[in-house]
Amino acid sequence: MDDELAEARGENTGRKREFHSRSSALDTLKGLDLNGKTYAITGTTSGIGIETARALALKGAHVVMFNRNIVESEKLKKRIEEEKSDVKIDFISCDLNSLQSAKAAADEFLSKHWPLHGLILNAGVFAPTAKFTFDNFESHFGVNHLAQFLLVKELLPALRQSSPSRIVFVSSVSSSHTGLKAEMTRHEKVKKLCPENANEFYYKLYAYSKMCQVLTAFKIHRDEYVSHGISTYAIHPGTMIGTGRSSSHPILLNYLFSDISRGFGFFGKFWNVISKPFTKSLAQGAATSVYCIAHPDVTELSGKFWESCWDDEKSLDADVARDISLQDELWEHSECLIDEWFKSQKPISTIGSDDSINSPAADTSSEENA
After folding, report:
1. What parts of the chain have a pLDDT lower than 50?
2. Catalytic-labelled residue, pool 39, 206, 208, 291
3. CA proximity to 21, closest of 316, 238, 278
4. Domains of the chain
């Protein structure tokens, strides 16, 4: 039993650690050829998503970027093409503030009949100015969990068909700060994790959404690893990553500014500047995502929490995250919310019908770049 616990916590001394906190995304891919692999990534127009897409594309993978901002997606593609002219990059419009947009993005991907060897759920918001999504879900929960939960569910068939395949949830050690108590019932815990309002402190709301990601990752591991060959990883990219820090390549200078703390305005930018010497660069922050999605050494290390390219669970609230019944209840609750949302959607009437004037198409615009 002690051996099993040690392995779950990433204390398997039989493995040699090759990469560390200062390893870059490209360091983890050294010597690998990713030609023939297709990876989809959410949120690549800012922060570590940029370096994640860049590293995979430069190593020959077909990268599909799920972004709201298509203009910035085009700019990133051109910058990467300046490094390697034959990169394979596509993008699909996806605003995670809208479940309709997330569903349409998944449908568009599936319509292309591309394989899907890996999905990285990288997008996220932290203290956004908009407290609720377009569908009236609390923003951290709606963007960081529910919309990407929908995306995963819709894309599971493609991942199964491309098996062995992988899913990386970019979570955070903040997931351990939910404050959930052992004496709480599962229903009470789910109610906390899926808030109906934005009354709590923004950091607590963020922590809830990040624990939702970890619980979902471990649930998918249980359901998909043995039966369909899908490996799943929940990762912490790094504490207070210097999101304004320059890339390891000069071509991306002045381009790498994350929007995750944009709700803080000037203070957020000021903090990025003074914290740079003590934090990871974007290339280092992207290393764990890239390592888990592509490196052959971790294929069989599914269902774990990763930090700095190692399955290190010292900062994981395992009592919550490893609760199988809580994983199942969160999954069921998330499905119910999405089902209710689908039922509430009125079909867009055809031109000439009696109620066409009163049935406008849904507006999927949002000020948050998720």
Report:
1. 1-5, 7-10, 242-262, 264, 271, 349-369
2. 208
3. 238
4. 31-357 (3.40.50.720)
